[in-house]
Amino acid sequence: MIAVDTLIEARWVVPVAPKGVVLNDHAVAIDAGAIVGLLPIEEARMTYAPREHIQLHQHVLIPGLVNAHCHAAMSLLRGIADDLPLMTWLNEHIWPAEGALISPSFVADGVELAAAEMLAGGITAVNDMYFFPEVAVEAYRRAGMRAAVGLILLEFPTPYARDASEYLSKGLTLADQVSNDPLIHVCFAPHAPYTVADDSFTRIRTYADQLGLRVHIHVHETAFEVEESRRLHNERPLARLKRLGFLGPDLTAVHMTQLTPAEIEDLALHRVVVVHCPESNLKLASGFCPVGDLLKAGVTVAIGTDGAASNNDLDMFGEMRAAALLAKGVSGDPAVMDAASALEAATLSGARAIGLEDLIGSIEVGKRADLVAVDFNAVHLAPVFNPLSHLVYAVSRHDVSDVWVDGQARVRHRQVLGVDPQHLISMAARWAVKARAAVRGGEA
User: Fold this and answer.
1) Element (H, E) at 353
2) 18, 50, 229, 301: which has the highest count of C-beta atoms within 10 A?
């Protein structure tokens, strides 16, 4: 018998790789944070001597969900301004509130709130983009959550930095500090083509090549953005990024609602990863990401929630369902993003978006044990003809019962370990008072 830390038995295991496979009555063996076995339950019982034996015989075990685009700290602005177009939402509400509120304490509290929400809903890894990334890093460490934290850059001053050089300098310092952290990774995060100058892009390109870091950026989010780029630069944003050397497998391009057939071909040729944020794009009426055309062209499509200020939750099960249904409606093809493809987008493709596909995103021997158990013993999930279909079209994030990150339990019996919900609710309420005052022009 082989001694291991944990053996998890489940009625079904959906490993994601191979795509579309559902394993009945299987177990996952975990040791030192890694998956060391995936095999039928009876065989596992004869093979392993676990220190902890977990039996989940009415559950589906899946890889941890990867939220491939989020502004986690903006959870403290959830619902502050709804039913508005993007630029009005930003210029008249979000940026004024942020200008008054952004601080290390705002980011620390906002990420703490967001991490608890994400873990409870089966999200084990996030691609985050916001100010004070060094503060976000510490918050994710406390939560025990895997994160790719963006080294933000804009041209204009904020409470975090005065200019592009200071953003970049602070980001490079943080990249060095977390280089050996098992759960925390960083990437360059220039906000968008309309907020970053060519010179700054050139410097980011040089450092990204030197350090081997990915680039995470909003691109082609709205028709207005595209037209402004044509007016100011005489080229579309994606063409500008291509000219500056950014189209490649290390680019994670978020939103992408405005794409031509030629641009889709270019994305496929250069192996760019696209992150689709269906609910945020719908709510802000930003447009429709042509997911069907991207998938048919062979582009990797991941899924993100965006921030809770524009969504208004961090629910990847909801995003999966919205992505699948929206792809069908936009393309006119009911098979264009089936359940297996939607789950892959929320797991393995998300791992590719943060450069961790060799570590997470599927249940395979040798990968890290980022796992989620979904309880199928519920009226709204009966009967079960196809558990994979249910994961996308019927499951709620509230069906998540247990979550592990790197083999460590983070959620047990629907409770996020080490988190006091009432503390988080009270903390968020205090920030809400300050945010309302900021938007109304009062004292924050």
Assistant:
1) helix 348-353
2) 301
With b for 16 or more beta-carbon neighbours within 10 A and e for fewer, the 20-52 pattern comes to eebbeebbbbbbebbbbbbbebeebbeebebee
Reported as type and span, the H/E element at residue 38 is: strand 34-40
CB atoms within 10 A of CB 173: 11
| pLDDT tens-digit map of 59-78 | 999 999 999 999 999 999 99
Parallel, antiparallel, or unpaired for β 34-40 and 400-405? unpaired
CB 385 within 8 A of CB 10: no
93 half-sphere exposure, CB direction, 13 A CA radius = 18
Q: Is the dihedral of CA 396, 399, 401, 402 positive or negative?
A: negative
The DSSP bridge pattern shows strands 48-63 and 371-375 to be: antiparallel
The partner residues of 276 in beta bridges, in order of sequence, read 303
Pairing of strands 65-70, 123-128: parallel
Please provide residue 341's backbone torsions phi and psi, each rounded to the nearest 5 degrees. Answer: -70, -40
- Give kind and range of the element (H or E) at residue 439: helix 421-439
| Euclidean distance between CA atoms 124 and 197, whole angstroms | 34
Q: Could you tell me the two tokens for 353?
A: 């978006």
Residue with tokens 């998540």: 400
DSSP state of 368: B
Profile the chain (444 residues) by mean pLDDT over runs of 10 residues: 98 98 98 98 98 97 99 96 86 87 97 98 98 98 98 96 98 97 98 97 98 98 95 97 98 98 98 98 94 98 96 97 97 96 98 98 98 98 98 98 98 98 98 85 44
In terms of pTM, does the model score above 0.90? yes
φ, ψ (nearest 5 deg) of residue 110: -65, -40
Asked if omega into 312 is within 30° of 0 (cis), the reply is yes
Which residues lie below 8 Å from residue 386, measured CB to CB, with a gap of 6+? 22, 339
Query: What pLDDT digit, counting tens, does each position of 186-223 carry?
Result: 999 999 999 999 999 999 999 999 999 999 999 999 99
Cα atoms in the Cβ-side hemisphere of radius 13 Å centred on 429: 6
Place of tokens 């040089």: 206
| Contact of 308 with 277, CB cutoff 8 Å | no
